[in-house]
Amino acid sequence: MATIYEVSERAGVSLATVSRVINGTAKVSEKTRQRVMAAMKALNYRPNSAAQSLASNCYNSVGMLVSEVHGPFFGEMMSGVETVLRAAHKHVIIAAGHSDEQSEKEAIEFLRGRSCDALILHADAVSDQYLIDLAKEDDAFVVMNRHIDAIADQCISLDNRHGGYLATKALLEQGHRKIAYIAGPLKKTDAKERLQGHKKALREFDVAFDAALMREGDFESASGAQAMSELLKAGKKFTAVVCGNDEMACGAMNTARDAGLQLPEDLSIIGFDNVIMSRYTFPHLSTIDYPIGEMGRMAAKWVLKNIYQQDDIDIIHHFEPSLILRDSVKAK
Amino acid sequence: MATIYEVSERAGVSLATVSRVINGTAKVSEKTRQRVMAAMKALNYRPNSAAQSLASNCYNSVGMLVSEVHGPFFGEMMSGVETVLRAAHKHVIIAAGHSDEQSEKEAIEFLRGRSCDALILHADAVSDQYLIDLAKEDDAFVVMNRHIDAIADQCISLDNRHGGYLATKALLEQGHRKIAYIAGPLKKTDAKERLQGHKKALREFDVAFDAALMREGDFESASGAQAMSELLKAGKKFTAVVCGNDEMACGAMNTARDAGLQLPEDLSIIGFDNVIMSRYTFPHLSTIDYPIGEMGRMAAKWVLKNIYQQDDIDIIHHFEPSLILRDSVKAK
DNA sequence: TTGTATGCGTTATCAA
DNA sequence: TTGATAACGCATACAA
């Protein structure tokens, strides 16, 4: 592999000049610029990124932690991040935390070890304090789907509580009173907040929360199916069910139908996230829109602005959920 | 940030010795090893990865090209790759090619520019020749979902043609004769091969391929919905439809039902890929299993074996599709 | 506008 | 088992 030194020799200039044309850091006469370009092309020269990083202390790469690499939610988020960052010629390194505290910490250390210039973290198992402490050591990171007061500038979040509220309220407004709830894993902040919103809506309509009508899943389809199966078996009547996310809602719908229920006649259902699939279920799933793709793009912009000094960027830290009413909810 | 030099000073040894305990490349007495470890801990030392890479010419990172970062198929693939590679302490850098030739080439160059040690490529727009030429320059890459004879050792593929054959055969065996086909984008090899398999099955059952019953989509749900809509509007009768992948099948089912058809009574449908969602559609989608997660893990192992010299690994280059019969197919 | 010289933090080759 | 010392390939302050 050709080095910058060989290029300089062939072009008959110093290696500093070659570096200048590569980086455009200083004026170079058009004539020598051409000569250098020609030499680079002739030698099929590519800068050695390790040497660049070492000399400049800039890695041009950003680490991204997600709970899981698969799944529609994280797919949209990663896609948003990748799009913005690659347009800016920054590399995106991915790691999964699997919603386990130890695993998340390891993943974060793994990413930091690679000397990423910045981190985009969708961490749902580590404590607020851990992230606050991390920020004291090195604050080159942005947190997704989570608001932490002490590092509010580094957070891009959505009001999950309000989303949960909207979902249940939609059901209540359609006359439902016996409403089951299939929660996400309650060790996760967002799942907890969505449940809080659910309870708030119930209170507003003077409906008592019934723990017997609640089950906890893990945000994946299978757990939604399992939860619905349990709910049905328990025999306690309910006319609607709120799910912690769309994937569990799909699983739940599936089980309900296999059990012979007509949807939405016998049971109304609402999800959360508005993942692409929710448009194609039967019946079409009502849900809460979570603009995760846009938030991923925003996180990438945060990095561009705060780490790579692209000042002409406005950052939105807070996004709002909104109700998407489709066919899976029917008036009681 | 502390350097190896500061560590060596504090531990009272040379920097070479520190490097040895970091990498375990040579014998170091237990006593000095302890001293060095203590010094590293005290200084909160982390090796500078750029310096390591520069000196060792090893980056510990692997580039991964996918068509899109979102989507269930690529999610499973990326997840498989990430799992294996991170366990081996290798970083994975993602890039999307968007199934566009120019864009894919750019993405590959982008990844190469980062001096990844190896590349895992799901490229569906560049030509075979491009990849063959690339291999001549630098063969540290493995190709997914594509078999190219000239670089067969670098390919991990699935017999898409056979998969397409199995799908249509399943329908034919159930007595269907008027079978529509919603293809993936035919510029992609896999979409083309699946269609070939479809035609082969038709021939075997002496059924003529009817171009009027075919539409081309782009592998995303919306295009399946659109294609079904066109097919229905065209008015030509068909009792079953084969879809190029599960996502388009979901879109197609959706449209068919919205048009008043009973599934699977009025129309049988089969997809391809066996993505998670296919288990949760209504009716449950029959499909062709594509073990993409396993293939992603295998690609990662290929890299471990061929690039990082982990010799005790067996590589499987060829995977077989298999029929998954669920409820969306009914005998005619 | 261009060149010189130094440093970036490691690994690896020799000696000792 | 340990220590000097020379790469590794580039960016950049300083000179010219």
UniProtKB/TrEMBL annotation, chains A, B:
Q: Which domain of life is it from?
A: Bacteria
- Return the Pfam families for the record: LacI, Peripla_BP_3
**UniProt xrefs under SUPFAM superfamilies:** lambda repressor-like DNA-binding domains, Periplasmic binding protein-like I
The record ties this protein, via InterPro entries, to: HTH_LacI (IPR000843), LacI/GalR-like_sensor (IPR046335), Lambda_DNA-bd_dom_sf (IPR010982), Peripla_BP_I (IPR028082)
Which GO terms label this protein's molecular function in UniProt?
A: DNA-binding transcription factor activity; transcription cis-regulatory region binding
Where do the HTH lacI-type domain residues begin and end?
Answer: 2-56
UniProtKB keywords: DNA-binding, Transcription, Transcription regulation
**Signal peptide extent:** none
Q: What is this protein called?
A: LacI family transcriptional regulator
